[in-house]
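> call design_seq(struct)
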């Protein structure tokens, strides 16, 4: 391949990597918020349920306290179930690994002597691994 064609190929790969990296930074952030947010919120809801029942300074009736605690505990359980069924942790990890691979490829492409065929193989493998990572839990769950 002549130098001009290599430069065009390098620019094309760089453009793809930059576009994908921008997308996966966003997806990683979104799945991080979903995963970690659901974990922390479920823990806070569970703790609030216990506090509602135990704090003497809350002057609600016993029935109101019990109802509030039940709603908080049920909300925590539902949130945990949604997070688990939705595979939030798996999707966050998979997107994080994909983003990391794109960051590595971006660095490779900065080297004018990098192996463009290797970059192409890595991109193809990255997409395959990403899809397997996202779908692995759905296949195990029967979906």
């Amino acid at each position: 391949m002549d130098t001009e064609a290599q430069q065009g190929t390098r620019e094309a790969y760089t453009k793809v990597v930059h576009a994908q990296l921008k997308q996966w930074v966003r997806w990683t952030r979104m799945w991080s918020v979903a995963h970690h947010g659901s974990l922390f919120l479920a823990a806070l809801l569970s703790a609030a349920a216990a506090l509602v029942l135990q704090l003497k300074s809350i002057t609600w009736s016993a029935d109101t306290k019990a109802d509030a605690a039940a709603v908080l505990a049920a909300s925590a359980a539902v949130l945990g179930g949604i997070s688990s069924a939705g595979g939030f942790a798996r999707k966050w990890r998979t997107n994080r690994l994909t983003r990391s691979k794109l960051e590595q490829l971006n660095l490779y492409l900065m080297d004018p002597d990098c192996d463009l065929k290797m970059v192409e193989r890595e991109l193809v493998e990255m997409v395959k691994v990403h899809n397997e990572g996202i779908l692995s839990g759905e296949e195990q769950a029967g979906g």
